[in-house]
Design brief:
Blueprint (H helix, E strand, L loop, with lengths): L1 H22 L4 H17 L3 H8 L1 H4 L2 H19 L3 H27 L9 H6 L7 H11 L1
Helix pairs in contact: 2-5, 5-6
C-alpha cells in the first residue's frame, strides 16, 4: 500500500506542477521555487510532516519535500542553538543532498567534455523537433560520433 500512496501523492504534486506550467505564464524557476516555499510553509503549519509520513518518498522526493527538510532543519537548529540556528539549520539538514547534487553535476560536466560544444549542437537547438527528418537526425548523430 505504501507504494500506491507514494505514487498517488507524488503524482498529484507532479500534476500540480504540470498544470502550473501549462496554464500559467510562470517560468519553471518560479514554479520550482514555489514548490520549495510551499514545502516550508506547509511544514511550518504542521501539515507536511503527516503527509510525508503517509506518502513516504511520494512527498519527500519532490521539491516540496526539500522545503520540508529545510524547515525541519531550521526548527531543530533553533531548538539547539537559538537564533543562530535560523542561519545554519537549513543547510546542515540538507547538506548531503546538496553535496550529492554538486558532485554528480560536476561528474556529468566532466563526462560531457567540460562544457565544450559538439559540432552541430547549436544548429539543432534552433530547429523545432517537428522539422527534423530521419536523415537530419542520422546526419547529426554521425557528426557527434
Amino acid at each position: 500500500m505504501q507504494y500506491l500512496y507514494a505514487f498517488l501523492i507524488g503524482g498529484t504534486l507532479c500534476l500540480i506542477g504540470q498544470i502550473l506550467i501549462d496554464k500559467t505564464s510562470l517560468t519553471p524557476a518560479r514554479i520550482l521555487t514555489g514548490f520549495v516555499v510551499s514545502g516550508v510553509l506547509l511544514s511550518a503549519v504542521g501539515l507536511y510532516g503527516p503527509l510525508a509520513d503517509f506518502a513516504g518518498a511520494g512527498a519527500s522526493v519532490p521539491l516540496s519535500g526539500f522545503g520540508h527538510l529545510m524547515a525541519q532543519g531550521v526548527r531543530e537548529a533553533v531548538d539547539k542553538d537559538g537564533a543562530m540556528g535560523i542561519l545554519t539549520g537549513a543547510l546542515s539538514a540538507s547538506a548531503a543532498g546538496i553535496s550529492a547534487a554538486i558532485v554528480l553535476s560536476l561528474k556529468n560536466f566532466v563526462e560531457r567534455g567540460g562544457g565544450r560544444r559538439q559540432a552541430g549542437a547549436c544548429q539543432v537547438r534552433q530547429q523545432s523537433y517537428t522539422e527534423f527528418s530521419a536523415t537530419d537526425v542520422k546526419g547529426f548523430y554521425l557528426k557527434l560520433v
